[in-house]
C-alpha cells in the first residue's frame, strides 16, 4: 500500500489494526474477542471510506473492505451483526467498489505484530476464507502472486491502467475504487 501511495494513488487504511491498538491502549489484551469488535471495525472503515476525497477518474485503493470484515467475523466465529449485514449489502447494492478486487497472496510467512497474532497455517485458512467470501459476493479476484514488492505493484498498476480504460466508472461520479485483501 505504501508503494502505491508513493506512486500517487489515494489509499484508505485498514481499520482492524487501529481498533486492536486502541483496545490494547485501554488495557484489553484481546479486543478481537469483544462482541462489538467487528462493528467497531466497520464504523472506522466507513468513516475512512467517506473521508476520502477523489475526483472523477481517480483510482483509490482500500486496504480492506466490508467483505474482508465479513471474512474476519466468520474466522473469529461471530455471527454477522446487523451492522455488518447492512454494510455488506450496501456496498454491493450501491456498487461502492469495482467488481474487481486484488487478491494479494501470502508471501510464505507471517510477521507477528501486537495486532496480528496468527500462525502461518491459520493465515492460510484465513486467506481461503477471504477468497470464498469475495467470490460469494460476486467479486472477480485478480491474483497477485507472491513475489518482490515492485513486481506486485507493477502488476497492480498495469491491471488498473487496462481496466480503467475498459470499465465504466462505478458510483456517484467516483473513480475506480478497488478493494484489496492482503494475507
Structural description of this entry:
The protein is of the alpha/beta class and 183 residues long. It has one domain. 48% of the residues lie in helices and 12% in strands. It has seven helices and five strands. It has helices at 2-6, 16-25, 37-51, 66-76, 82-93, 120-136, 149-166; strands spanning 11-12, 60-63, 100-104, 140-144, 177-182. It has a five-stranded parallel β-sheet, with helices on both faces. Strand 3 (100-104), helix 6 and strand 4 (140-144) form a beta-alpha-beta unit. Helix 3 (37-51) packs antiparallel against helix 4. The radius of gyration is 16 Å and the shape is globular. It starts with a helix and ends with a strand.
| Percent in helix | 40-55%
Strand content is 5-15%
> Which class do the helix and strand fractions yield?
alpha/beta
Radius of gyration: 16 Å
Question: What's the β-strand tally?
Answer: 5
- C-alpha end-to-end distance: 13 Å
Low-confidence stretches: 166-183
Order of helices and strands: HEHHEHHEHEHE
What about the largest sheet? 5 strands, parallel
Shape: globular
Chain-averaged pLDDT: 85
Strand order across the biggest sheet? 1-2-5-3-4
Q: Supply the number of structural domains.
A: 1
Number of DSSP helical runs: 7
Layout of strands and helices, then pairs:
Layout: H1 2-6, E1 11-12, H2 16-25, H3 37-51, E2 60-63, H4 66-76, H5 82-93, E3 100-104, H6 120-136, E4 140-144, H7 149-166, E5 177-182
Parallel strand pairs: 1-2, 2-5, 3-4, 3-5
Amino acid at each position: 500500500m505504501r508503494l502505491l501511495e508513493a506512486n500517487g494513488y489515494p489509499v484508505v487504511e485498514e481499520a482492524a489494526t487501529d481498533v486492536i491498538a486502541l483496545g490494547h491502549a485501554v488495557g484489553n489484551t484481546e479486543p478481537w474477542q469483544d462482541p462489538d469488535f467487528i462493528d467497531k471495525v466497520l464504523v472506522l472503515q466507513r468513516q475512512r471510506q467517506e473521508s476520502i476525497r477523489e475526483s472523477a477518474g481517480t483510482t483509490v485503493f482500500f486496504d480492506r473492505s466490508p467483505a474482508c470484515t465479513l471474512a474476519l467475523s466468520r474466522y473469529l466465529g461471530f455471527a454477522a451483526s446487523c451492522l455488518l449485514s447492512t454494510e455488506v449489502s450496501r456496498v454491493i447494492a450501491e456498487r461502492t467498489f469495482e467488481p474487481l478486487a486484488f487478491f494479494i497472496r501470502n508471501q510464505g510467512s507471517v510477521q507477528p505484530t501486537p495486532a496480528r497474532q496468527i500462525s502461518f497455517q491459520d493465515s492460510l485458512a484465513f486467506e481461503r476464507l477471504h477468497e470464498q467470501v469475495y467470490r460469494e459476493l460476486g467479486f472477480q479476484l485478480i491474483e497477485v502472486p507472491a513475489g518482490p514488492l515492485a513486481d506486485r505493484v507493477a502488476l497492480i498498476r498495469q491491471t488498473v491502467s487496462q481496466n480503467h480504460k475498459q470499465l465504466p466508472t462505478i458510483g456517484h461520479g467516483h473513480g475506480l475504487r478497488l478493494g484489496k485483501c492482503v494475507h
